[in-house]
Amino acid sequence: MITIDTTNMCSHLQRKLFEKDGQYHSLWIAMQDDSELTTVVRSRQLHIYRNGKKVLVLAGKSVPKIIREDPICELLQIERIKWMEQRFNNALAAIKDGSTNSLKTIKEDIAELSKYYSSELWKIDFAAEEAGNLPPDLKRGVLSEDGIWNLLADYRDIQKKKQ
Prior knowledge:
The protein is of the alpha+beta class. It is 55% helix and 12% strand. The chain has 7 helices and 4 strands. It has a 4-stranded antiparallel β-sheet with strand order 1-2-3-4, with no helix packed on it. A hairpin with a 6-residue loop joins strand 3 (53-58) and strand 4 (65-66). It is globular.
């Protein structure tokens, strides 16, 4: 069982790790069952080691930094795709519904999806999809270029019409 002194950990990272709907929560759960992993909080970030060798650095607002290939890093990618897929589906449903309340609830989802779609992480995830390196049962509509592009465009159009 891994315990962490969160005194100097970024509050954004704490939410991502410890809250049930946090982006890294499943990763945190998996880390608890892996006796080869250790962690240290440095500069408000979580540094993850396997058998004394650093493999990953998680930060609150910036993208994770993969130091070396490791099973925990592969899990990070899958969990990221699942998390983004959930946001993608929430946004699709809200846009389809079209009510003001629904559209207000997805503002943060849209911001995260837009940031993800324009990031290097989306390109890495898309390349993994194209290469067939993702589990076949993983839902990944968020990796569809047209799907995410159309979602963001539809949201922008709705916002323009409201003005």
